[in-house]
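Q: Fold this one first, please.
A: Sequence and structure below.
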Amino acid sequence: MNKSIRTRTLTGTALALAVATVLTACGGEDTPATDAKAGDTARARPAAQVEDPLVATFDGGLYILDGESLELTETVDLPGFNRVNPAGDEDHVVVSTDSGFRLLNATAQTLTDIEYKGAKPGHVVRHAGKTVLFTDGTGEVNVFEPDDLSDGKKPQGRTYTTAEAHHGVAIELSDGRLLTTLGDEEKRTGAVVLDKDDKEVARNEDCPGVHGEAAAKGEAVAVGCEDGVLIYQDGKFTKADAPDAYGRTGNQAGSEESAVLLGDYKTDPDAELERPTRVSLIDTGTAKLRLVELGTSYSSRSLARGPHGEALVLGTDGALHVIDPDTGKVEKKIPAVGEWQEPLDWQQTRPTLFVRDHTAYVSEPSRKAVHAIDLESGKKLTSVTLPKATNELSGTVAGH
């Protein structure tokens, strides 16, 4: 699994938290039984240091899993709808809660006192050694170095507030420039780039419905639009136009190994929930957008990148589709979970993909399961059955 073994000693006493008892809704359809053995069934043990932990949300709390065995090592009681993202170091995960962003020390299995309060905590972005939090309800952007979390105190970092609060995203580049979206509660129009002193150096408002972000090789940064993708690189904006008048790419996944970004692609602005079967590949060098037909639908939690830059999509057919980003060819399909359907409510459970190094972790809520799959061989390494169905899945990721 190419996991690095760390030998740091945990100091202090890890806090054991109570098991949440709130049941969660099941987002997937009934599927065949997984290959999880009885010995793999999750069992609790006293809190201790966990190597390369994973964190899965359920209705009312968080499960912390050992990254290799998938053993359930701790259950954290945390009411409300929670979301999880890597914080950018080897210990922490950012948890989006009802009151703001909170930092979970997943290695020590305890919630810390580090918190960024604010209504509607949104996107968490890691790039160039910085982690950026965007709070939708206030428009506040917080930037910090994840290594500064190690002392248990809130890091000193950059703070910026957008002109209007909106559902947005921001990313800090390696030279200190900050790219952040433009919009308000009614509409979103594009992006602006600020220097280290928050002085505007570039702007583009030709990106209706701007949403999501990803970075590619050469520090090309893109945000999605309802008619293509807006790319910022080398001090200027370019636009990769969609082939349709309405062609929305709202979620993207990037890799430092590839100049091509992976994105979703939707064409029906009036759909209650569109279940697309095509994904987009955006060449940041040529500003060209290519569509790839998968023959199966997917969700916003289905996109990821592999260790070699390969594009990964978890389809509702239950397979992990591995795509060559340069040719658009689906090179292989790795069986992962049973067939499923994306629920109408975006907060409801559905299979989720999280990739770390050469391992793909896939949740299967209908079976209360999480699986680890080797991307090189396509073999399932291990599976675990959890007490309750999970929703989001993430983990610690050191480095960028």
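Q: Good. Now the second chain.
A: Here it is, same layout.
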Amino acid sequence: MSDHCFADRIATLIPLSAEEHAAIARLEDRERPVRRNGMVMRENERLTEMFVLRRGLMMSYMILDDGSRQILRFHFPGDLMGLTGLAFAKSQETIMALTESVVCPFERGHVSELVAKHPRIGMALMAFDQISRVGLTDRLAAVGRTSAKARVAALLLELRARSSTRDGSFALGVTQEEIGDATGLTAVHVNRMLRQLEEENLIARDNGRITVVNDQRLMRTAKYVDRQARIDLGWMPPAA
């Protein structure tokens, strides 16, 4: 792995030439620290920059008409944030740091230059966006059609998959209120569901860490679909 986490992330989807990798890596030329609860983008503000998350954990959310918050995504290192800036003049979401974080800001016009010079990168960005969209669609379907326990279980599996852990244990990194705002539940209901998953010996909790005790049963409870295993970018042309 290099110091350019977004370029490395794209390279997990498609083989990159050295020139393509260097071109994507230039999006991370600048660093900006963001304190916990700091915002890099606010809903309805004019968009001038996009961001790569280099370190930390962040989230995107919207404020609904009743004042409640709907969390759309949790962002991990290597994520490209603010992609709505390619279609809208104003931000459609707020992006806030959940931990001390580091982002790499770049002008959204750089994407145009990048894609013009390297069309395969444009294809990869389109695929990257669709992978993110499908994850959001899964959450929407879960909120509308599955039980509270299934929603919480599915989010735990999503967070584990994004945490790049090599075993069943991972730092949760989010509060029960944030889990609730992502799944359409109250913090009290989330707490009850976590206890139930623990009592059923599906997970174990210890000092902010979650251990998946029974992977297959938890996936069945969550009605979880491993979308990463289904990614197929074989249609893309090879690197020059």
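Q: Anything worth noting on the second one?
A: The mean pLDDT is 92.
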